[in-house]
Amino acid sequence: MKGMNKQIISFPVPKTGKISLVVAPKTVIHSLMSMLAVLALRGRVIVVDGGNCFDAYSLARALRRRTHQIQPALKAVQLSRAFTCYQMVAMLAELPVDGTPVIVLDLLSTFLDENVNFSKRQRLLESSLNLLRQISEGAPVAAWARAHPAAEGEYQQLLMPLLETAHDIWELQAPEIPDHQLPLF
Amino acid sequence: MPEFIGWLLDLFDDPREGLVLYFIDEKGARHRLTRPFPVTFYALGSDAQLRALWRQLSNRPDEITLCRTHRMDVFKRQDVTVLGVTIKNPYQAGKIFHETAAQFPELEYADADLNISLRFAAETGAFPLCRCQVWSDEAGQLTHIKVLEDAWLLKATPIPLRTMSLAPDVAPHHAKPRYLIVEVAGEKYQLDLHTWRPLLINLRALIQRHDPDLLLTDWGDTWLLPKLMAQSEKYNIPLGLNREVGRGVSWHEERTYFSYGQIIFRGQQIHLFGRCHIDRQNAVLWSDYELDGTIEVSRVTALPLQTAARVSPGTGISSIEMLTALREGILVPWQKQQAEMLKPAADLFSADQGGLVYQPKIGVHKNVAEIDFVSLYPAIMVYFNISPETILPDPNGENLVPALGLAIDNSQDGLIPKALRPLLEKRIEMKKHLASTPNWDPFRKNFKRRASALKWLLVTCFGYLGYKNARFGRIEAHQAVTAYGREALLRAKEAAEDMGFEVIQLYVDGLWVHHPQKTRPEDIQPLLLEIQERTGLPISLDGIYRWVVFVGSRQNKKRAVANRYFGVFQDGSIKVRGIDARRRDSTPFVSEAQMHLLELLASKDQPEEALPEAVDYLRARLRALRSGHVSLPDLLVRQRLGRKLEAYHTPSPAARAVMQLQAAGKEMRPGQRVPFIYTLGKPGVFAWDRPQAPNPHAVDVARYQRLLLRAAGIVLESWGLDEEKLTERVLSDASQLRLPVPPKQHPRKHRSNIPGVVHPAMDRPFKGQIQ
Amino acid sequence: MGRTLPSATQLMLQEEASLARFRRALRRGDQLVFDDLFTSAQKHISAAAYAAHALPFETFLMAMLLEEHKELMRLREIVERLQEMHA
After folding, report:
1. CB C15 within 8 A of CB C23
2. Buried b (16+ CB within 10 A) or exposed e, A11-49
3. Is B448 a member of any domain?
4. A91 lies within 8 A of chain B by CB
5. Helix (H) or strand (E) holding B239
6. How many domains does chain A have?
């Protein structure tokens, strides 16, 4: 967290019929929480967390910047965490299809688990993307894929179908400036 | 051989005979019996997919029978339609299942990869090492088995195991062993490892003559048995390690895994057939509970002895749960699919917490009672019926979990409480029994070891509930347990305060309380009853401290840490947590000295009276250190290698020691402990397992002196001698060599730096300090 | 399953870190008082964790205030005792 690019990017909120994808390093979580705050002030939102990274404190601060009443909005965010790729698929299959916006955090993380064989993971990811496509027909869907500094083979192969599924893609990179550099102005 | 009474020693599947079982007859004989043993797995999915699977499998009628049936899915809380696939020979089951799963990846599977020992226990009630009555026919087929002593019996009849112990004369990773020491039937043999032919012939003769049930080895998994087998093949002298003729040994790969935030390494394993092999150096928690505890684990988990010796307590708990599920006809999922329920983000703040832990008041506290909940988390699971299927997302229902928006369904007993109840009750019984068993009782040791084995299983069962791959795990159940735990501890605190006690410390499942007039065990009794009344959970008095000291953190002395303390109970026994005397990585030279100082303090009515003796003792230890009278093994540090060598930016001392070993051709894995000595100059360490002998003159005496005085300071500080004063006192002895004193670690946090507050001691140079 | 949210101890360190610029601009003596405030709040970290407040800094401020008031009461007692002795 230390000073590391805490600057917040305002993403446009996702729209029904489209899958918005953000490919960015971990620090983007604060921006995503900020977008989530905007959505939560309008009504129910579903968050599926695939990377054990849901930052509830960041969300609370983002809400607090907008309202004094943060509790109703914190209750409007419905959260479920997936710790394995099997859970990710099961969870997406069980989501209510009622127009509630869906945000998926760190979508690829559970699919990078080497304890499950790769073709199986590819198949499970394919099922997950199909489910997201179905959901997006009736509800706004946004997903974040964590960018890997050294993007090796498996990660690339898993990212590809995701890029093909998304309608608009935001690709962000880690700031070039090292965070210990002395700001002169 | 129509009928006998004895013990089930080992069982395994066999390509021709299905199931093979070895028994120890109480009259001395050993029996090998067989039995056909078909096993069933289940497939779940859409009707179309199941029909496709049926068509695929139905062309192998001699091996497989199929049936459509209903089984209980614990997560769905209802019966589901499944296709049962029964395989005639259990030996084929693994292969057929994996082919099926690869061909039909869309299906879910259950009861697929279970240990045959669990299946046998679920079907017959007989588990490994159980005392039983056995009937068989003339062909050597088991016809009936009746358990005579169940796994929950407090005192089981001792098993007349014939044990042979095999060990090299030195640790093979440390030096080249010269002899193989064989111990059997009270005799000891020393076989020369340089002359293989006679060694093999003699060993074979010993194995044949004594026919041991159990081979107890040192480094048998990783060094000895592989070596013996290679030489036996080379000289063409078969040893007969297996009892089962015609079977090779079974190899299991080495592995590294995470457990409670620590990285653990377990070497490769060698399992035998018809005879058991346990490598004491590779067995789980052997130093803690030895063979008695391992037998206990095997009995309560129904895992074969060789497996029970080598699996983590988590796997043990998983086996107990799976066995319960099999008995209840509940599906054991192959891959857990169950995801977390959708819940408001607002609930996460309360849910995502561990146990309640206070920051204790640093310093000495007198007349403090320590009260502990007995196996708190397992007790919560059992008494509050917490299980994956009993937790419902209902913020308004009955039986609400404190602050989580979840409710418990008490209309049925959960699977987890059913599995854990006998284990918990046995543990509580054993604890009671131990408390009333005198020290001279020959069974006491056996009891302590078995109690320890049960303790480890119970300690693990809570974490296992939250483990992502646990078959019957569920996040909400895990969170409910900690929520009840916090509630119980707060109620205990309130009860204590209502009765006029001061609460000194709270720690997950225990509390430390003080009352100036209530200093005898009988004074505490009413509080125990009150807490039990308010929480519904069993609680016991661990003891009353004459004094207990909570020490600050290593980094900042003013910041309290919950689990770093030492104290003396009224009966004179000492309890120590989190300081050198208890840490597995600290050197014996330091931890023994610290323990000795504690004993000195404990021996006086007023601990202060021990200070002069303590100073003399430390001077003597330092003299011994400088004159080379402390043996090198007493200076060994054993640190764990935390990660792969490449991952270190600045290598830790352990990593530097590993580099030396690597240069000598010895590999170490993350999770292994590396013994080394601190030495002068670079790289500052000497790895104990290097081929060369260490130079006693290279020992970094100053460093060990610092370690000793720091450890002594922690113990003596509360009586006026902190590390600085102690260093001054100890080194003021004219005969002592002066050595540099370590710089203070956090000068900016020191109060004496606040303007206007000048601490005179800080301004003058330290006595006895040379720079 | 690892935790998703930072522990109360980590949260306090984060809050302390987020005030790093403020601390840096303080005089040395004031910096040490600042550090002392956080050390005193740390005594109530388990209560803060149990409270599970969505905006934990409010709880930390309360913990600092609590310790301040305790110190105030202690000093007041000493002053009163001294006054009685001199009366």
Report:
1. no
2. bebbeeeebbbbbbbeebbbbbbbbbbbbbbeebbbbbb
3. no
4. yes
5. none
6. 1
Query: With contact defined as beta carbons under 8 Å apart, do B585 and B642 qualify?
Result: no
- How far apart are alpha carbons B347 and A24 in whole angstroms? 28
Please answer whether residues B660 and B685 qualify as being in contact, where contact means their C-beta atoms are separated by less than 8 angstroms.
Answer: yes
Rounded Cα distance, A58 and B641, in Å: 35
Phi, psi (deg, nearest 5) at residue B264: -120, 140
Does a structural domain hold residue A46?
yes
Within a domain: C43: yes
Provide the shortest C-alpha distance from residue B761 to chain A (in Å): 37
Give the domain-ending residue among B577, B598, B628.
B577
Interface of B with C (CB under 8 A): 346, 348-350, 352-354, 356-359, 403, 466-468, 475, 478, 486, 490, 506, 556, 558-560, 748-749, 751, 753-755
CATH number of residue B317's parent domain: 3.30.420
Phi, psi of B706 (to 5 degrees): -65, -45
Residue in this structure with the two tokens 């698929």, named with its chain if needed:
A89
Residues of chain B neighbouring C42 (CB-CB closer than 8 A): 359, 559
pTM for this model (two decimals): 0.87
Q: Which domain covers residue B561, as residue numbers?
A: 350-414+462-577
Task: Say which residues have a Cβ less than 8 Å from residue B205's Cβ, sequence separation at least 6.
Answer: none
Residue B532 has which token pair?
């039990």
Using CA coordinates, name the residue in chain A closest to B346: A74
**Beta-strand relationship, A45-49 and A77-81:** parallel
Q: Which residues of C touch A2 (CB under 8 A)?
A: 17
Token duo for residue B433: 């029994």
C-alpha span between C6 and B349 (Å, rounded): 10
Say how far apart CA B318 and CA A160 lie, in whole Å: 38
CA A101 to each of CA A90, A139, B31, B363, B764: distance values in angstroms, whole numbers, following the listed order: 18, 5, 67, 55, 68
| B563 within 8 A of B538, measured Cβ to Cβ | no
Q: What is the pLDDT of residues B560-600, one digit of tens each?
A: 787 889 999 999 999 999 888 888 788 999 999 999 999 99
What's the gap in Å between the CA of A117 and the closest CA on chain B?
A: 11
pLDDT tens column, B691-728: 888 888 899 999 999 999 999 999 999 898 989 999 99
B346 contacts B492 by C-beta, under 8 angstroms: no
User: Does the structure's ipTM exceed the value 0.85?
Assistant: yes
**How far is it, in rounded angstroms, from Cα B508 to Cα B493?**
12
Mutate to test the interface with A, among B342, B350, B476, B478 (most CBs of A within 10 A): B342
Overall domain count for chain B: 4
DSSP secondary structure code for residue B570 in this structure? T
Q: What is the DSSP letter of A109?
A: G
Cβ of residue A106 closer than 8 Å to a chain C Cβ: no
Domain contains A7: no
* Residue in B539, B566, B516, B548 with CA at minimum distance from that of residue B371: B539
What's the domain range around A96? 19-171
B549 shares a domain with B480: yes
Q: b or e along B329-355 (b: 16 or more beta carbons within 10 Å of the residue's beta carbon)?
A: ebbbbbbbbbbbbbbbbbbbbbbbbeb
Write the pLDDT tens digit of every residue in A21-66: 999 999 999 999 999 999 999 999 999 999 999 999 999 999 999 9
Cα B751 to Cα B763, C32, C33: the distances in Å are: 14, 8, 9
| Helix, strand or coil, per DSSP, at residue B573 | coil
By the 8 A CB rule, do B180 and B201 touch? no
Of B352, B356, B358, the CB nearest to C3: B352
Domain housing C66:
8-85
Task: Give CA–CA dist B771/B767, Å, rounded.
Answer: 12
C-beta atoms of A91 and B340 within 8 A: yes
